[in-house]
Amino acid sequence: MPFGLKLRRTRRYNVLSKNCFVTRIRLLDSNVIECTLSVESTGQECLEAVAQRLELRETHYFGLWFLSKSQQARWVELEKPLKKQLDKFANEPLLFFGVMFYVPNVSQLQQEATRYQYYLQVKKDVLDGRLRSTLEQGIRLAGLAVQADFGDYSQFESQDFLREYVLFPMDLALEEAVLEELTQKVAQEHKAHRIIMETMCTWVFSSWEFL
């Protein structure tokens, strides 16, 4: 850190001084970043700090949430001081960044960075089982995700890398032979199209109603 400043670790926070604290935020790509804030900083200030790192301008679609002491997801009240909310309600001072408001049509999202974060949220919700799909839908979604994450099929001599890539919801119990067959179907789906990021979001938005 600059000037040789050392952090003093407490039970709940990394503390820089009596007036500042450091909190961690898990992003939609699973990376964790740290933000240094004033004890009076609001949730909105923290959200804006995260958005700045992500080069995200359309912040009004996003929010921050944490796990409560009863292990329930709770959205940060953006207009209120963040530290007080974490002290009172949070199980630990770890925040999660995510989509808070969905749009009826992905074309309403003006910024590519916004569409990318929507894609990450949709992908996460599908793999976590929060968005349910038929097996056919799951194969198509997996093919779109592979395209978005890795690019065109023609770049690869082999599709063996797909065996190490999470393609289907975590709670979907599949026998090894069935998983191999579905993985091959995903590879064919990947081969069949060249897309841009918003294709996945557009198709998902037309397939599910978001609560």
UniProtKB/TrEMBL annotation:
PANTHER family in UniProt: TYROSINE-PROTEIN PHOSPHATASE, TYROSINE-PROTEIN PHOSPHATASE NON-RECEPTOR TYPE 14
GO cellular component terms, semicolon-separated: cytoplasm
Gene Ontology molecular function, alphabetical: protein tyrosine phosphatase activity
Biological process per Gene Ontology, one example term: lymphangiogenesis
Protein name: Protein tyrosine phosphatase non-receptor type 14
Gene that specifies this protein: PTPN14
Domain FERM: 21-211
Pfam families associated with the record: FERM_M, FERM_N
Keywords: Hydrolase
InterPro entries the record matches: Band_41_domain (IPR019749), FERM/acyl-CoA-bd_prot_sf (IPR014352), FERM_2 (IPR035963), FERM_central (IPR019748), FERM_CS (IPR019747), FERM_domain (IPR000299), FERM_N (IPR018979), Ubiquitin-like_domsf (IPR029071)
SUPFAM superfamilies noted in UniProt: Second domain of FERM, Ubiquitin-like
